[in-house]
Amino acid sequence: FLSLTQVTMSSEETEQKIEKKLMDDTNKNDNENNDNTKKVNSCSKNNRKRKFEEMDNDKTIESMNELSICNEPPTKKQKKSKNKDKNTKTKKKKRGWSEEEERLYREGLELYGRDWKLLASHVGNNRNAASIRSHSQVYFLKLLSQNKLLPNKVLESGNGYTLGGNPLNKYSSIAIRHFGKPENVPMCDGVISDKEAAEKNKRPSKKDKNKDNKDNKNNKDNKNKVIIN
Q: pTM of whole model > 0.70?
């Protein structure tokens, strides 16, 4: 039989062993947890690095795209829009004619006729010869639509309802622009009907000009081919 002292000693030893084992287990678990947290932290750091690198790459790609867009030549639509903007900026609003200016203009027609410079100086108010000419063309056609004669001083340089005094052709672009159709133009002294002359004097359209340019280029290419052969 074991004595009481031996029993107590053995029980104390076992308790110490158990405590030691428990301490070891806890230390081991703590170490494992620390390792895991380190791994998690390292993974998160790596992920952050990757994200930052991806963001940098995206920014560089965007900047490269912007640079490529800036370096690309403008399209036809962009050129047209720029030209429109320029035209809208450069174009000035037309200044209307006051009652006093109109009175001086008609008075000047009776005095100077088709002398546009003298008419401009008579009207004054910064009106130049070009402004007087354009106003006169409208005024002459207005008189024609009202079946009225031109002023006497104007008739001295020609009875036509034109700036030069020549008869107005009812098929001309000016007459059609004002009256809409050749049939609407009143036939009287100073007006003629000559369709062939109007066709000859007609300005070529942009399409016709482009066709002519293409034809000229093709003819030059064909001549060069013949010379080479």
A: no
